[in-house]
Amino acid sequence: IVRLDGVPMTQDSSHRGMLFLLQEVTEIRRLEKMRSEFVANVSHELKTPVAAVKGFAETLLGGGVNDEKTARSFLQIIYDENERLNRLIGDILELSKIESKRVQLDCSPVYLSEFFDSVLETLSKVAEKKKISLNAVVPDELFMEGDEDKLRQIFMNLLSNAINYTHDGGNVKITVANGHKPDGTETVIFTVSDTGMGIPRKDLPRIFERFYRVDKARSRSSGGTGLGLSIVKHLVELHRGTITVESDLGIGSSFILELPLLQEHDK
Ligand code: ADP
Description:
This protein is of the alpha+beta class. The chain has six helices and seven strands, in the order H-H-E-H-E-E-H-E-E-H-H-E-E. Its main location: membrane.
């Protein structure tokens, strides 16, 4: 056996080379499998609303609906399915931009108390509709360095999920506190907790995967795309942070995020 540069290989190094090659091939196969699963999922997810829009529009066009109330309810379905399609396309594009590393952070100081006032304000109507109490506990004057739009996307996703998967009359809360890592790096710890339906233990490791849902019907009926948490995880990692989840079935869930107080260039 001769190496490409002409130097003879020992038995041992050739075995190591083979092992390395096998590992590479396995990794390429794994990525290829993930890619084709993703394409299959995307097509399935897109086809469902397209088929619904087509079916209901055909019925209306065919003149098969005489009373106005039924016609309106069909139009509402067409409108809602179209909205879902829009969200789905937006999330798919966002995810592919992040995954191909075409997204960069545009960081500035974010004052967290004002930031959460505005996030909660945006969600107040949805929470009120379900009579859910929505609160934030944020130390005054605390700020962190981050990309405000992306932080907004993270917390809008987590808080909307918390509202969505909590029964009427429940509580959703975000608490913010200072923290540090073992190496002394200063961090901010965010906990988004709810008194909702919770997540079964066996599903916990998978909920950040693309299109993974504990209850497909519930996610669909509430307009979910199944991509929110995987976008959140990527955006947290772009900020060099971590996200974990704890949940008790029927009692509630908490998503815990730890983000550095300052981004690298300022340290
Ligand atoms: P979806 O659009 O379906 O909400 P996500 O990626 O945001 O997709 O979440 C994935 C799944 O994780 C959801 O379908 C739901 O089953 C579960 N999940 C997320 N957040 C919560 C929560 N706060 N309480 C209970 N289940 C949750």
